[in-house]
Amino acid sequence: MTTHRGFLAQCEHELLHLSGAIQPHGALLAVAADGRVTHASDNLGTLLGLDPQSLLGEALPAPLATPLGRLGQLPGARLFVPLVEGVAGDFALLASRNAAGQAVIELLPDNEEEMLLDDVSPLVHIGSREELMMQRQSLVERIVELSGFDRVLFYRFLPSGDGEVLAEALGAGAQGRYLGLRFPASDIPGIARALYVKNPWRSIPDAAAVSVPLLGLDDAPPPDLTLADLRSLSPMHQLYLHNMGVASAISFPLTIGDELTALISCHAVRPRRLPLSRLNRLSQEVESFALAEKTYRTRTRQNMLDGLERHFNGVRRQVTRQGGLRQAWSLLSPWLMTEFDADGAMLCGEGTVLREGLSLEPEALDAVERWCEGEEVVTRISDHLLADCPEMPLSEVAGLLAISLLTPSGERLRCYLCREEEAQEVAWGGNPDKPVEFQSGPVPIAPRRSFETWLETRLGYSRPWPEQARLKLLKLRQLLQEAT
Ligand code: BLA
């Protein structure tokens, strides 16, 4: 595993945005702030009849310079022109301003096909957990239908960075199923995720296609292709897709702020290129789902916090009447255990430990207390104490929620909610301990070849704490603090 880890670190260092090459289904030019072309893709001749070498250092040809006038000057600006006039053949133009201030111009041969499907994205409403699951499923089904791809997955990231397939829809050519399977974080390196957050999609029409190099002016460094649709495919991912039997892939990101929370991953068993208008339409479908999910999550979060506060009001009176958390412990502890679905609760202050149900043994308590020390540590959450808490000895307690409180008299109290061990069955898409295979040749690793279900029984874990545990704990901390 250590050796695998060492090699996996390499994946994090592949500078995908500086690949200096593009996928061959379009052509690319980079233009410096002074208007001179710094890079041109080697396929400009075949696609547009332009000699890339002779463009370098020159001003852009007029048919491209005119639309480019509309591209904003700030990094991140984008422009889409469905049809550029005066260019050999029909081309759509995509332009973006990269971090270095260069304009990156992409020309994609127009392959607009007639939109036969109705053009209106349905308004998505999510009112309950069941509806959330149903809407995930109908999203992937709509995307199969609108894209003609063979498989569409809703791939959600877990806090660990691993991912799981929450919904799957299959088209005609699909083989095998991925629903319910988990995949290790290293399958999608952080450096790739950061690119997906910044783009509405990542489209790979032909994963086996040979990429086209960008020719550069003198020794100009490769241009930043972060926002370029044509950015070449990483050789590592090219192999991965090949191993999965996937010839063409598109991913649509779902984000909260700058965090990538899920991907809609589409696979086709044959190369398949969608027109930009279709990609746009699909991205809108994903967006309207994402919006509905955000609204639903905000509402349920608020309901959860309101509920906690309402339930706490009864307890608060008792705490105040009895003169403190310790005195009210016999009432407080069962309430806490129910509210957080815990098997036990503890309250630790200077010199006192109160327990109810499952609790930490003395040595385990010492380790946990050390882990929770420090002014800034107000909460800790773990469903695998043995791994998360340094020097944790073997214990009946496998999972823990912890909050630290400061009483009005300046005493530091800690409240722990404990869960026992429960064997966790995890089904992986291939052996997660061997995400790569070693090989001879210039690149010593390759993605694993088998995605066969790999069952892992995880010991030392408790039932996982819910997603919003931290927020709920913070609210509880505030309520307890106010009640003392
Ligand atoms: C990219 N890896 C990706 C992407 C996905 C996955 C969805 C985004 C591009 C795309 O849509 O294909 C992984 N695809 C999955 C998973 C499922 C799926 C898990 O459908 C589940 C069903 N990959 C490796 C290793 C490395 C690696 C060991 O397995 C590192 C060396 C790299 N994956 C890798 C890279 C990219 C990637 C570099 C970026 C590809 C790019 O955008 O050029």
Description:
- The protein is α+β, with helices and mostly antiparallel strands and 484 residues long.
- It folds into two domains: 2-296, Beta-Lactamase (2-Layer Sandwich); 323-423 and 461-483, Beta-Lactamase, CATH 3.30.450.270.
- The protein contains twelve helices and 22 strands.
- It has helices at residues 2-12, 44-48, 52-55, 62-68, 129-147, 190-197, 235-244, 276-322, 329-339, 362-371, 385-388, 469-483; strands at 21-22, 27-31, 37-41, 78-81, 91-97, 103-109, 151-157, 163-170, 182-183, 202-204, 212-216, 248-256, 259-268, 344-349, 352-357, 379-382, 397-406, 412-420, 424-429, 436-438, 445-447, 453-458.
- The strands form five sheets. It has a seven-stranded antiparallel sheet. A six-stranded antiparallel sheet has the order 9-8-7-13-12-10. A five-stranded antiparallel sheet has the order 15-14-18-17-16.
- Strand 7 (151-157) and strand 8 (163-170) form a beta hairpin.
- The chain starts with a helix and ends with a helix.
- Biliverdine IX alpha is lined by residues 11, 14, 16, 153, 155, 163, 165, 178, 183, 186-189, 192, 202, 204, 233-234, 236-237, 240, 249, 251, 263, 265, 429, 435-436, 447.
